[in-house]
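Final report, Chapter 2: Outcomes

The project's central promise was a pipeline that accepts a single protein chain and returns its three-dimensional structure in a standardized token representation, suitable for archiving and comparison. That pipeline is now operational. To close this chapter, we reproduce one record exactly as it appears in the project archive, with the input sequence first and the structure output second.
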Amino acid sequence: MECTQCASLITLKSPDLKANMTTASKRPKSAAAADDDIGRDIRLELFRMQLELRLCEKRAYDLFLQNLIKGTSHLSLGQEAIAAAFGVAMRPDDYTFCTYRGHAHTLARGASMSGVLGELMGRECGLLGGKGGSMHLTDVSKGAMGSYAIIGAHLPVAAGAAWSAQYRGTEQVSVCFFGDGTTNIGAFHEALNFAVIWKLPVIFVCENNLYMEYTPISAVTAVEHPAADRAAAYNLEKIVVDGNDADEMYRTATRYIERARKGGGPALIEAMTYRHSGHSRADPGKYRPEGELEKWLERDPIKIYRERLLGLGIVEATLKDIEDEVNQQVNEATETAKASALPSLDGIEQHVWADGGAAWRN
């Protein structure tokens, strides 16, 4: 079934690629005012959150160039509106499950910047003591239930967490983020099926950045929208939203989270977005059609959101103060991570082996 709230169509073209996006929630007629259905305070929180995610990941890239971060990692520069919107919309005790491109989602739940940067640098102050690295960021105390490097592996886990919340009657909601390529994995279909059958409080969010690693998703998938066009198979709404618009993402997130919290069951959301860099730091992204990146850079989520806030009457000085504060926060987190020691070899066997009991966790 088509989402009854779809209101606008945004078409972005490049020489070889077209992406159609329909928003999943209507803008109110009074959208010219900063005190509409979202409001000034939440908008400033969304702006701050997007900045934190962007500047922290850019700092991670700088640290990699300084050889302070080893190996590779997968940045979500350009996709910040999705993580920020859900981070603001979720309750502190809700659950987040994400992929190896999970820095932003972990930060959006309140994990410390120094903990994230320290983990990337392999330091003791890292979220996992420097042992997990970029693709396994986890902060259970903040509801960030792990980054999963195996494609699709976390969707059934997210459904299981939702089942637990349903059984315990806690009204917690599980939100599971994944890329467009995951929609061609069996676990995607299995998780959706059981979530609907059991009416679980879980939101599945496909971050469709058009590429599954180096291959356009359109080249290997029979439908235009790999997640939303398959929703009907599981008796779910077709929901396609502009993933670069923080307001639309926030409206969509709040609507379906609250529905799930009240027993309304799962939702499958396809958020159209674009990563500014390649799949990983080892990928220059030269497979992208000429001009495609430039078109998407014009729709940088932070750029368009800043312009919107100014248009809503929020003064430049307010935004500049937020930008200065976030820059300082990132700088302080960087210095904390740099000053942290490397992990001791004494802990090399901790959190590795299970002996059938709880002792291995300690």
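Archive annotation: The two ends are 48 Å apart (CA to CA).
This record, like all others produced under the grant, will remain available to the consortium after the project formally closes.
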